[in-house]
Every structure is written in C-alpha cells, then in structure tokens.
Amino acid sequence: MNKGRIFLFSAVLASAIFSTNLNAKDDNLKDRHEALSKLTKAISVIEEYYVDDIKIKEIVDKAITGLMQNLDAHSAFLNEKAFKNMQADTSGQFGGLGITVSIKDGALTVVSPIEGTPADKAGVKSGDIILRIDGNATLGTTIDEAVSKMRGEPKTPITITIVRKGEPKPFDLKIVRDVINVESVYSKLIKDDNILYVRVTSFDKNVVNKVKEAIKQNQNVNGIILDLRNNPGGLLNQAVGLVDLFVDNGIIVSQKGRNPSENSEYKASKGATITKLPLVVLVNGGSASASEIVSGSLQDSKRAVIVGENTFGKGSVQVVLPIENKEAIKLTIARYYLPSGKAVQAVGVTPDVVVHQGKVPQDENSAFSIKESELKAHLQGELEKIDGKKDEIKDTNTTQKNIITKQKVDDDIQLKTAIDVIKVLKTNIRS
C-alpha cells in the first residue's frame, strides 16, 4: 500500500474524487454516484437546517468520525490533536497515565496498565472499564479521543471512574500524570530452581537484542520463563524476532487483508535461533497484539507451554494514512493469523495450562517460613534505628536485584506453575 496516498474530503468535490480513486475496481458507477450524491445531499441539509450553526468542515469531520467508528474498534479519524498524540507515541516520551485501552463490546476497556506507571501504581487492572474521564462519560467515544483526554502535562491530576468485575458499584481513581518512560525488558534468576525469568513489558525496538543478551548471559539454566502478562504489544518486527530466537523453521505469523499487497508471511530462520532450552510463556487478559503473536506462535510450533489466562484478542493491523498535512485516518487493513491458521482477533490465545492469578496455597510450615523472613526484615529495620547504620545480617531470603525470591514465587501462583512446568519439561528431556 502507498502510505503516502493523500485523501482530501470535501462535500463539493466528494463525488469526483471518490470516482477517481475507486472506480478502477467497481463496474457499477451508477450506484457509486447515487450513494455519494446522497451523502452530499445529507451534508447540505444538515448545514442548512440543523439547530446549531455547524460549519462544513465540522460536519465532514463528524461524518468521517462516525464512518470510522462503524468500521471497527481500531479504525479512527485522527484530527490535528489526535494526530499529534499518535506522533508522540512514536517519539517514546509523553505525559500520561501508562495504560493501553481498547473498545470492547462498546466499552472503553483497559487492555493493561504498563508496569511502574501512575496507572499501575494506582491499582488500575486489565479488564477495567473506564466509565468516565474527569466526569465526562466515555460511552460512544473513540480510543483516540479517550487517549487524548487522559494525556496531559506531567504532575497534573486526572480522575477516572472505573467499573470492575466483582465490585458492587463504579468507583473513582485519582491519578497524577507523569512522563511515561518504561523499561521494556528485564531479566532475573530464579536461583533455587536455576531458571531464567525474562519479563517483556512492551514491544519496543530494543526487545529482541535485550532478550538475546539475557539468554546468552544465562546459558546454563534449566529453562526460561518468558513473562508477557499485561504486555499490550508494540512493534511486529520485534514480536517476530523474539519468536525467531526460539524457533528455527516454519511460519511465525501471517498477515492477510482484502488487498493482496497487504498479505505477507513471516518465517523463522535457523541462523537466528539461539536456544533450545525448555520454555514457558506467561500470559493473561492484558496480553495483547504482539504478545499474542509471540505466545500463539510458540504454542502452535510446540516450542513453548503457555500458562495463565486467555489473552485479550487484538489481532488486526492498522496503518495511518494522511488525508491532509495535519489530519489522518487510522485504518484496519489486515488481520494476523497464527501458524495453525487461527485468527487472533476477538479470540485470543488459550493457555495450555489455565491458571488464574493469586497466591500459592500455603501449608503451616511454608507459612511460618514466610513469617520468619518478614520478622528478620523487621528486626533489621529496628537495628538500623538503634545503630544509625545498616547492620549486616546474612539471610538467604534477602531480596536481591537480579534474583526472584521464594516469597515472590509464593505470591504468584502463575509463576509457580511455570516453574513446575519447566521442571517437568527438563525431566522429560533427560529421560
């Protein structure tokens, strides 16, 4: 597709322009002219008789906005402000809350909060419905309109009204905006089990290189856990490249649209594969788009076991096409398909092992062990108060920056299940 194609929308010139751009594939020009004539007449009637004085540009903007909303949840008209916000996304730094949203069943729904951002710290959860933004209802709003309202100068407050499953009524969350600048990849060692834990929070341009570096630095581990929970997606090439680190042949993902020029296949290459270690991928309802490509592709290729909850179900391709220098449309042009041929859109990826979020059930002995660890941490603090300095206490349970402790594992049953799956896979390889 020619991404530089310019579409100029005008009530006066609509018929001629649409005929020029679209008549190549349509034999029934009469129907086309009649339809466009109807649109022009409707705009003229609104301009002349509507109760408020609406200028022609505003009428056309509203018409385009309504058209895009009725196509699908991800297509949108980008006015000047929305277009600037989209460009801010690509620059990598802006003032906001740190959440990815989508329209699901007509409601503005949180795909996931980005780890470490104001929304995450305030307790926003995947699946939350945002009912109001600063008192203004979100019903009928577009994604881009909602994002525009939630963006703003860092350190400025905003109140969102949340509808959450299990809560008796909507509630308000007051959040202070901040600069969103998130570390996309970090890795730790699950020391007791000698397993590499790799967390990918979003798919920016650095994901493949950072994951590759983490794997190369930990080649003697028993397995790898790739955590894609609450990862809203990002760059397709990084999702493809990440799968390619683990798979050495076959289709990773395919893209199919109405226009044959949009169809493409992305295949694994043997030279890019760097490990055959047992692999488990963690997902949940906040795993979307690129995360679903990675988890679904690894599942279809039998390369990884997927653990957690069903993913979000966002598997369509959008491109931004300018219609004027300061305005554009974001249009869905294709859908993603996994190696099995299954579509991701509205379906998502179903885990091999379904585990809902929560803590690991404790018996009396393990519960005592956790309390003992907490007590040591408390006594450490009391010693600091007396001595005015930090006393050295040897404690194998002390949290280290690059280590996941037993307590952390016990607080996350999905992670604990992933560890158990790695142990089983490792045992099967040995036998």
Automatic annotation (TrEMBL):
- Please report the stretch or stretches of sequence annotated as the PDZ domain: 83-151
- Coiled-coil annotation reads none
- Entries under PROSITE patterns matching the protein: PDZ
For this UniProt record, the keywords arranged alphabetically read as follows: Hydrolase, Protease, Serine protease, Signal
Looking up InterPro entries in the UniProt record yields: ClpP/crotonase-like_dom_sf (IPR029045), CtpA/B_N (IPR055210), PDZ (IPR001478), PDZ_6 (IPR041489), PDZ_sf (IPR036034), Peptidase_S41A (IPR004447), Tail-specific_protease (IPR005151)
> Which residues constitute the signal peptide according to the record?
1-24
Which SMART domains does UniProt cross-reference here? PDZ, TSPc
Q: Which Pfam families does the UniProt record give?
A: CtpB_N-like, PDZ_6, Peptidase_S41
Q: Which family does it belong to?
A: Belongs to the peptidase S41A family.
Listed NCBIfam families: prc
Name the record gives this protein: S41 family peptidase
Record the organism: Campylobacter gastrosuis
The uppermost taxa in this organism's lineage are: Bacteria, Pseudomonadati, Campylobacterota, Epsilonproteobacteria, Campylobacterales
